[in-house]
Amino acid sequence: MILLELFLTFFKIGAFTFGGGYAMLPLIQEETLAHGWMGVEELMNFMAVSESTPGPLAVNLSTYVGAETCGFPGALCATLGVVTPSFLMILLVAKFFAAFQESFAVKACMDGLRPAVVGLVASAFWGILPTTFSAGAPLAQLAAAGLLALGAFYLHWKKVHPILIILACAAVGVVLGYLGVLSL
């Protein structure tokens, strides 16, 4: 029963979230916590690992949640659940895209979805922010995280490859953690 519940929950997440993995985060967080599959801190750790491993964020995260909940069968069910709607939608779009690509309704729909995606990504950011920094976080930790974020934005603005930005932030995080600035 839990395997079907994993599949259907992640199918719903995959079917009703547009904009990729970051836009899915609020729904994944809400559903995972509502089902009691893991706590907020554990989910945050899985989010960090999911962002750090190759592959789509939502697929990685659903796989981790499924594996944590029900081992390999759970990982398989959650992963299939989250990717099946996109797979079916892509097949449908590919079949009819040429006929509808100039449609006013399709263009208007896409114009309406773009701001929604930005809002969902922002919601995910605000949703995980309190867990990332507890009320008692040292000022040095907050300052270091802020400087890392500013550095990442600057490197992105300078068009540095995202992999190099991730590696640079990880290296600085390791050094700051070793120096005791960041609590690990």
Provide a descriptive summary of the structure in words:
The protein has 184 residues and is mainly alpha-helical. It is built from seven helices and no strands. It folds into two domains: 131 residues, no CATH class; 51 residues, no CATH class. Helices cover 83% and strands 0% of the residues. Helix 2 crosses helix 5 and helix 6 runs antiparallel to helix 7. The radius of gyration is 19 Å and the shape is globular. The model has no long low-confidence stretch (mean pLDDT 82).
Tags for this entry?
184 residues, 2 domains, 7 helices
In short:
The chain is mostly helical. Helix 2 crosses helix 5.
Record the SSE blueprint:
Layout: H1 2-16, H2 21-35, H3 40-52, H4 57-100, H5 104-132, H6 139-157, H7 162-178
Percentage of residues assigned to helices: over 70%
Largest sheet: none
* E-strand count: 0
Q: Compute the average pLDDT.
A: 82
Which class best fits the helix and strand makeup?
A: mainly alpha
Q: Roughly how many Å is the radius of gyration?
A: 19 Å
Low-confidence stretches: none
Order of helices and strands: HHHHHHH
Compute the number of structural domains. Answer: 2
Number of helices: 7
The global form is: globular
Strand content: under 5%
